[in-house]
Write a structure and sequence with these properties.
This protein is an alpha+beta fold. The strands form three sheets. The protein has a seven-stranded antiparallel β-sheet. Strands 2-5 form a two-stranded antiparallel ribbon. A two-stranded antiparallel sheet has the order 3-4. β10 and β11 form a beta hairpin. It is elongated, with a radius of gyration of 30 Å.
């Protein structure tokens, strides 16, 4: 009986030690994630309140600032996203019938093409390149295309809730376009974009 009690006590001690190790590991992971978020939030608040320190600003290869323009950040490995419409099709209609009038001449009766159904809109990657976010605009510089979105013509921003994609709607383009960026840079990218819009529209206090 004594041996059974001792064995049971030892088993419980091993379980308690393993459970304690597991919970400590979970706590450390949660604390590390919280610390990263806390540091990111502190950086966001500081940038929104005080601007950026020049010596900490990333290099902007190929970016030429305009008069009075302040560069907020640059991101590589980005992709230009454009809205394209897929192939359409005709729905309904009938082929009718045809008969011969004379040699080599046919006449068709009763045919109709039906109604044309346009294809669905799709998001397509059209180029790879670098993105620069400034106080007045967002620019994309790729191997085949360049694109600029001015905050002065902005109609709205749409951040995808699942994918690292932001679509930008401006008044001087019929279709929206946007940027796909590395997932690990999504918080910084979206914040700098929102900060640029807030600065340009006088809404920085609300952002802060």
């Amino acid at each position: 009986m004594a041996d059974h009690n001792a064995a049971e006590a030892e088993r419980r001690q091993r379980w308690a030690a393993a459970e304690n190790h597991h919970r400590q590991a979970e706590f450390q992971r949660a604390h590390a994630a919280w610390s990263r978020d806390d540091q990111l939030l502190a950086w966001m608040q500081s940038a929104a309140r005080n601007g950026f320190q020049t010596e900490r600003r990333p290099a902007a290869t190929g970016f030429v600032a305009k008069r009075g323009e302040e560069l907020f950040g640059s991101f590589g490995n980005c992709r230009l996203i454009e809205v394209r419409r897929g192939a359409g099709h005709y729905r309904g209609g009938s082929s009718g019938f045809s008969f011969r009038i004379t040699r080599g001449v046919q006449y068709r009766v009763g045919g109709s093409a039906g109604s044309y159904v346009p294809g669905a809109q799709e998001l397509r990657i059209t180029d790879d390149g670098d993105v620069h976010i400034s106080s007045t605009r967002v620019t994309f510089q790729g191997g085949k295309k360049s694109r600029e979105w001015s905050y002065g013509k902005l109609l709205g921003l749409t951040h995808d809730p699942v994918r690292p994609i932001t679509m930008i709607h401006v008044s001087n383009r019929q279709n929206a376009s946007g940027i796909a960026y590395p997932p690990e840079h999504a918080p910084q990218f979206r914040f700098l974009l929102e900060l640029g819009v807030a600065r340009a529209t006088g809404r920085t206090p609300g952002l802060i």
